[in-house]
Structure prediction request, 91 residues.
Amino acid sequence: MTIHVQAKPNARRNELRPGPAGRWLVRLAAPPHDGQANTALLAFLAAVFGVPQRDVQLLSGHTAPFKKVEITGLSDEAGAAVLARYRASGG
Prediction:
């Protein structure tokens, strides 16, 4: 499945929340220097979706806040169920 996110580094903790225009807002505790925030993003999304980190790949947005992430190793239905739980809880 592919997910579109807006990453916000330097947060107090990692957090996934519904965002505008079908995107997801991901707050990351990591700084944006030397790719640390991207690494934290991939690790966090792997934990959220319950897949190995090698199954989460950054497709675009390596240096931008808006990113496109591919998550393999789970069905679209399973991924949608995870996102629905986050949407229902507000993050």
Q: What stands out?
A: DSSP finds two helices and five strands in the chain. The chain has a mean pLDDT of 94. The domain at 2-89 is CATH 3.30.1200.10 (Conserved Hypothetical Protein Mth637; Chain: A;).
